[in-house]
Amino acid sequence: MKMNSIKMFFIATNLIVLLNACKKDDPVVSLPTLSTLNITAITISSAESGGNITSDGGATVTERGVCYKKGSFPNITNDLKTSDASGSGQFTSSLVSLEPGALYYARAYATNSAGTAYGEQISFKTLPVAIGNDFGGGKVAYILQPLDPNYSGDYQHGLIATPADLPVTNWGAYTLITSTPHGIGNGNINTSTITLTLGAGTYAAKVCADLIFPAAGYSDWYLPSIDELNELYLNQGDIGGFGIGDYWTSCQYDINAAWKYAFGLGTYSIADKASTYLVRPVRSF
């Protein structure tokens, strides 16, 4: 009995040794190691960057790129990012859809089975736009100033005008519109109010709201308010494409009349809504 116990002990011991000899340790996977490349080729709306993955952490890098935003420590979950293939080594990234004159933060990222690692954070500022620049589907017509609604010292906002007028049309039906304020920042709201009230048809606010320019491009054009159209008048030399006639604004006077702007004189006055005048759509950036 004792011999059998000893024999069983040796068999069990040898089996354990054999199993341990055959068993291979599972590889340990860690996060990748990488750095962020310097920002280059900065424009008003884009920039170039990238990363260099010096270690994949023991597992294939399945996704890599650069994440970026107007704020510190961008991440791949909540912010803009590029996707630049897979694997280790150096890669380049194109950062797009940036706002002009804005401060951005960026950092490269790499993802393997252990998770996502980031390179160091770097910052850069996009180039500012100027009146008359080609941007956002048209010409920069106005840049918001400190007392304007939605002004920010951290980035630029303003108005973009189409490079040419739309054909003459009427202002709309003899229907009282609830409110169409004159100030900068009101043209878009006015246009929505007018088109919701008047519905389908061919009239100044509607042709702006329905415009897609350039082809397959921007579709958020609107009829400017008096103050917005005044800025277009003041900057018409840089914007270009204006006639010497009168232009409709998105501001109503009463049930029968609305405000128009005479570009030949630099004045505005009321006109019958059935009259036909030029239209110059704008959009905000």
First-to-last CA distance: 92 Å
Which overall shape is indicated by the principal axes computed on the Cα atoms? elongated
Proportion of residues in β-strands:
25-35%
Largest sheet: 5 strands, antiparallel
Low-confidence stretches: 1-24
Query: For the CA atoms, what is the radius of gyration?
Result: 31 Å
> Which class best fits the helix and strand makeup?
alpha+beta
Tell me roughly what share of residues is in helical segments.
Answer: 10-25%
Number of helices: 5
Give the averaged pLDDT, no decimals.
92
Helix-strand pattern, N to C?
HEEEEEEEEEEEEHHHHEEEEE
| Count of beta strands | 17
What is shown here, in short?
With 285 residues, the protein is an alpha+beta fold.
